[in-house]
Amino acid sequence: MGILDKGAEIAAAVAIAAASAAMLGACTVTPWHSSASVADDAPAAASEAAAPSSAPSATPIETSAPAVVAEVPPSSATAEFYRVKAGDTLSRIAVTHKQRAADIAAWNKLPASGTVKVGQLLRVAPPVKASVAAPTPGSAPAKSLAAPASPPPAAAPSAPSANAPVPPAAAARTNARLAWPVSGSVVTPFAPGKQRGIVVACAPGAPVKAAAAGRVMYAGSGIKGYGKLVIVKHDAHLITAYGRNGRLLVKQGDTVKLGQQIATSGADAVGVGALLFEVRENGKPVDPLAQLPRKQP
């Protein structure tokens, strides 16, 4: 059997397998899939069927060396190519030739949009691979093919430098601007748009301290939802609020120092103590944990 005859036989087998894969894919692939996503949805059977058959030939091979698989240049056979006509689309051409649009796009290196032009010659069948017999031991050796050089070993990742920049979040926790106002566990975290501060569970009557030096802007219980509340202004941009206290120890206008006790924590109906702690920067709520040290004193 000649090379061309064997190539035609393989091409026919590949065309049948590809048509079966296209019919299976038509049950799940939607028209709006991109070429990349359609290719990902291809059944595994299609790739297996596209591989050259490894079945032995009916004609015995006497002493020839193992065959080397080489790509056959595109031929002018009309079954393998199609010239685009007016009104054609990639999808229509794929259906007509029982192929997947993604495959035709890949064979012809079409743009991601899948646009085709009138008069464009497209490959509509898989490229055929033919067997080229290697030279026998007695024949003159052809020009040898140099083995591809092995790629250089990848450089081992270097250890992180001591001077490497610190991520913003970590930097905020390392260079904390505020101190913990009370010792306890955070039971309610900050949530943008939902929770404007954190709730720290603590013992009832625990000392509540100023997170930084500043001036008391408000001390009272006139703001709904905060109970007995203290608000401290630290600079032109930063204020802190301490809510749900049991007893207030400062009044509006007082100057407080870092760590100075300003209140005692309150308790709910079942005796559980908690402090509502909020931080406002330029008038907007920010996560208090980003301003506090990782460990409590």
From TrEMBL:
Pfam family, one: Peptidase_M23
SUPFAM superfamilies: Duplicated hybrid motif
Gene Ontology terms, MF aspect: metalloendopeptidase activity
Chain ranges of the LysM domain: 80-124
Low complexity bias locations: 132-148, 156-168
Region entry Disordered, spans: 132-168
Lineage: superkingdom: Bacteria
Stored Gene3D superfamilies: Glucose Permease (Domain IIA), LysM domain
Record-linked InterPro entries: Cell_wall_metabolism_enzyme (IPR050570), Dup_hybrid_motif (IPR011055), LysM (IPR018392), LysM_dom_sf (IPR036779), M23ase_b-sheet_dom (IPR016047)
The name this protein goes by in its record: LysM domain-containing protein
Originating organism: Paraburkholderia caffeinitolerans
